[in-house]
């Protein structure tokens, strides 16, 4: 790697720190899936995801060490018990790669626009390219396995139309317009990611012994179920079929292979990403009643995430993100 004398900027430090934390956490899950993998078609995908996470982790570590910047503790083999029985089936491992590659593509596209130093920019562009390939592989495999739930379809218009009055924005009173393609798509994807999250939580809950963490996970499950119910009801009221989950089984194991610290990080990181994604959904919605759903759910998620962060701080699990040494006036 070429030597650089340009110090890292604050966004570049954040990009490296965040990537290290996320990749080290994801690697624990991928190792657990891989050690129990039986499906010969899914195994190469999980292995490639695992190798990519490990490679990214080492590259970020080299960047930080080259800057004499402390490498985060993150997560390691101490946070996953590879001798524990499988907690999820191979199909769920496939959906995990699908979901994490989705989220990574969203986050990396932002990181690319936040870094300028040539070596970092080249690294994150390369990550984006490799994760894009991983995402395509996961979608193709889900389609072939029959577990990819397609978003709603809509009829094609016969011509271009312009909005003629402000009733286009109404939602509570008067005649409502049909949902736009944006609104249909966002409702579907909120349902989809919460279904995947509910299954992850189901595995955590049936194996979690820590009562405080288990209570928090129960709240997470209720919050995810609320989002599924709200947007399924919206679709049904608009004359669309509600989204029905494809069965991605959790095993009957009651042995938790993951540390409580890792589980709490994954939940708070997921809800943090959800806030960003719901903000995007809100920006695309022009019907007031639909926008109100997003605002109410965003408030619930923000309060939930703060409680989770407080729990992690009390337990000594919250690794402090990079921050300025300059104190506010």
Secondary structure: elements and pairs:
Blueprint: H1 10-35, H2 42-66, H3 90-114, H4 118-145, H5 181-207, H6 211-237, H7 260-284, H8 288-315
Write a compact overview of the structure shown:
The protein is mainly α. It contains eight helices and no strands.
Write up this protein:
There is one protein chain. The chain has about 325 residues and is mainly alpha-helical. About 65% of the residues lie in helices and about 0% in strands. It has 8 helices and no strands. The radius of gyration is 21 Å and the shape is globular.
Looking at this protein, list some descriptive labels.
single chain; about 325 residues; mainly alpha; about 65% helix; globular
Order of helices and strands: HHHHHHHH
Overall mean confidence score, pLDDT: 90
- The rounded Rg comes to 21 Å
Low-confidence stretches: none
Number of strands: 0
- N-end to C-end Cα span: 40 Å
Q: Give the fraction of residues assigned to helices.
A: 55-70%
Number of helices: 8
Largest sheet properties:
none
Class of secondary structure makeup: mainly alpha
Beta-strand level of the residues, as a percent range? under 5%
Described by the principal axes of the CA atoms, the overall outline is: globular
